[in-house]
């Protein structure tokens, strides 16, 4: 259960791989275009609800 054990988190860190014990971090990055489109869509839905 050390650096040589590729099934453990420490072993995956030393090898540089990912898996169940060391998942990849998922960062969702939104662009200005996406946020402006989303804002327009929210405004239209709010108008329809009123």
From TrEMBL:
InterPro entries: Ribosomal_bTHX, Ribosomal_bTHX/bTHXc/bTHXm. One of its GO terms (cellular component) is ribosome. The keyword Ribonucleoprotein applies. Coiled coil: none annotated. Keywords: Ribonucleoprotein, Ribosomal protein. Residues 1-33 are annotated as: Disordered. Pfam families: Thx. Belongs to the bacterial ribosomal protein bTHX family. This is 30S ribosomal protein THX. It comes from Adhaeribacter pallidiroseus.
């Amino acid at each position: 259960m050390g650096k040589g054990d590729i099934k453990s988190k420490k072993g995956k860190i030393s090898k540089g791989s990912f898996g169940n014990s060391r998942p990849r971090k998922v960062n969702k990055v939104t662009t200005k275009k996406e946020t402006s489109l989303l804002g327009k869509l929210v405004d239209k839905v709010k108008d329809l609800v009123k």
